[in-house]
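The records we work with from here on pair a chain with its fold. A complete example follows; check for yourself that the lines match position by position.
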Amino acid sequence: MIQIITDSTCDINKEEAAALGIHIVPLTVRFGNEEYLDGFTLSNEEFYQKLESCEELPVTSQPSPIIFKDLFMKYTEVGDQILGIFISSQLSGTFQSASIAAEMVRDECPAACIELIDSKSVSIGTSLLIREALRMRSQGLFLDQMVHSCLEMADHIRVYAMAGSLKYLQKGGRLSSSAALVGSLLKITPVIEIVDGTVQIACKARGKKSAATFIFEQLETSSLVEDSTFVYGHANAKESLQSFVERTHSSVNLVHAYTGNIGCVVGTHIGPGSFGVAYLEEASCEAQNELAS
């Protein structure tokens, strides 16, 4: 059995994770002296309520290696293989914690089969890679085939998200106070993207409609195949996202499309009102199809 393990920044909720047969290790979210387990003792709805009323942004921290070790050991002892897919190592120490844990397990159990993937993404981007891994597992691919394909796909995941407010980018240090003020006056809506595992501003659009159009144009001009996977996410912006999905559906064949809530890691910086999409470029899909055949 190949066990797929990830962290809570993939923004797949615990109920869906149980249905999919994956295991989620939660990060910790701290508002002042109050500490929560992301997605387990703090829901997305509760998170955004707290976010809107807090003066300082919450602090998140990765799981300890011991937490990962206990989970890895649990499946190693029954002979299962492990595929871990985690948030970009450029954005969190989670991948490093999992790597330390894997070495600890290998020291105790040299026959342990543990493979870890740096998704080079976060939230809906990591979710996309996990869903592709699930497709491969259901097709009966071996672990080494899944690893090879996931590593290839990680280089071709595209993520674009419209920031609902400049407030959170400014609080998080990605915009100066003066830039945020000017941006608000000009009704600037930033579009962020993930590049080489880091968050960057792809566009400073004049208004939310222009920001949504920019994202749509990036998707529309990308090289896609018919069975490509799309993962959409929103932060308390369900109606805005639905309009975008309907627009996408008019020009892209959405055979595999999923929608979820953007959680605390991305939500902390782009804030409520945000939405985005993650998808694979053609090169990565071709690599997957070659393995599947």
Summary: The mean pLDDT is 87. The domain at 2-154 is CATH 3.40.50.10170 (Rossmann fold).
